[in-house]
Design a protein that fits this description.
CATH topology of the largest domain: Aspartate Aminotransferase, domain 2
Helix content: 25-40%
Low-confidence stretches: none
Number of helices: 11
Order of helices and strands: HEHHEHEHEHEHEEEHHEEHEEEH
Strand content: 5-15%
Number of strands: 13
CATH superfamily of the largest domain: Type I PLP-dependent aspartate aminotransferase-like (Major domain)
Radius of gyration: 21 Å
Structural class: alpha/beta
Strand order of the largest sheet: 2-8-7-6-5-3-4
CATH architecture of the largest domain: 3-Layer(aba) Sandwich
Mean pLDDT: 97
Distance between the termini: 38 Å
């Protein structure tokens, strides 16, 4: 569990502010700073530094595999979630007549590759109802031509958490589609149960408290053929420097094909440190500690003159709560002046509550929000 002592020791910048914006940027513990210094020390050894770099790479893949419920061989690491989805699109190579299902609560990274003119597939939109994605609305979009359904486990927009087993069962029953799940807003915040998912993607600078520069990809070995990326590069190739390197390029199968070039080792060190920290605290413990704060915040927001975007469904809630207000930007500025950090964008205010947040953070936010609402 996070305690007052560990907050002061590991997150000194939290002193004096109520940081409720981990869905955009997590606050890394000092262990992540130490990992970046360790990278620098290893890098100072030149080529000899690649030996500890490789050890960090292997250890990080093991950690990601632990959280995803896969093996290290089923993990790839690229530069960000956007790169992961673009590489996924290259792997699928969808053709005219193929169909993709996206949804209107998703982040652009998982949606936009299928909307580019270069993608020949038809796109169907799974629309939310009252802030939630309902499986009954997905089923009519599925059919024999559906090649892919892509969705976030937790929506960046309003925090709605899908019923993943129910969604998977519907897709398997009504189509032959592959299932891609973005866990960026879930990894490190809520327990994950990702069995029977075909592609898993996450960024690294939010809830796992690491750095920018990572895209964590999971591909079960049974789906390696479908998710093998035919990209140029070298790190992901079977024999990048062999005698036949000017005649053909063959990608390693599955997850390994998403790591197309030199790994971003500073990020790898930071990702390992962030995930180690999260594992030490325990995701279940984080959720037990933060969930009551989220629900309290949600119920208090319901009493205010705002348009609540997050459905009040306890089973469908993770760490994000959001609302709309015409003066969202002004509200965000007023809160920031009181050392309260939230996200405001396009009339929406988003609050993100992690394990390092406290009752005092939430009460400070609610108190100052009430003041801001009277002044806008």
């Amino acid at each position: 569990m996070f305690t007052d002592e560990t907050r002061r020791r590991d997150f000194p910048t939290l002193a004096g502010m109520s940081y409720l914006n981990s869905a955009a940027e997590g606050i890394p513990p000092l262990a992540v700073r130490d990992s970046l210094l360790a990278y620098f020390r290893d890098k100072q050894h030149g080529m000899d530094g690649r030996t500890p770099h490789a050890l960090e790479w292997d250890a990080t893949k093991e950690l990601v595999a632990h959280f995803y419920g896969l093996t290290a061989a089923e993990i790839g690491i690229c530069s960000c979630s956007s790169e992961a989805y673009n590489l996924a699109a290259m792997a699928l190579n969808l053709q005219a007549g193929d169909e993709v299902v996206i949804n209107d609560l998703d982040f652009p990274a998982g949606v936009s590759p299928w909307l580019q003119p270069s993608c020949q597939a038809s796109v169907k939109l799974w629309r939310n109802r009252h802030g939630g994605l309902r499986t009954d609305d997905l089923i009519p979009l599925l059919g024999p031509k559906t090649r892919l359904v892509t969705v976030s486990l937790v929506s960046f927009y309003n925090g709605f958490t899908i019923d993943l087993p129910e969604v998977i069962a519907a897709i398997r029953k009504h189509s032959p589609a592959l299932i891609a799940v973005d866990v960026t807003q879930a990894l490190g915040r809520i327990p994950l149960h990702l069995s029977d998912v075909d592609l898993i993607v996450s960024s690294t600078h939010k809830w796992i408290l690491a750095s920018h520069g990572g895209g964590l990809v999971g591909v079960p070995s049974a789906r390696a053929v479908e998710w093998t990326v035919p990209a140029g590069g070298w790190y992901h190739l079977e024999d990048a420097f062999g005698a036949n390197r000017f005649e053909r390029a063959i990608s390693k199968p599955g997850a390994s094909s998403f790591s197309v070039g030199m790994p971003n080792y500073p990020a790898i060190y930071a990702i390992r440190a962030g995930l180690e920290y999260i594992r030490h605290v325990g995701v279940e413990a984080i959720d037990r500690q933060a969930r009551p704060l989220v629900m309290h915040c949600l119920h208090e927001l319901k009493t205010l003159p705002i348009e609540l975007l997050t459905p009040i469904e306890p089973a469908r809630i993770a760490g994000i709560v959001a609302f709309k207000h015409p003066a969202a930007d002004a509200i965000q500025k007023q809160l920031h002046a009181k050392n309260i950090h939230v996200m405001a964008s396009a009339g929406r205010v988003r609050i993100a509550i992690h394990g390092y947040n406290t009752d005092a953070d939430v009460e400070h936010f609610l108190r100052e929000l009430r003041v801001a609402l009277t002044q806008t």
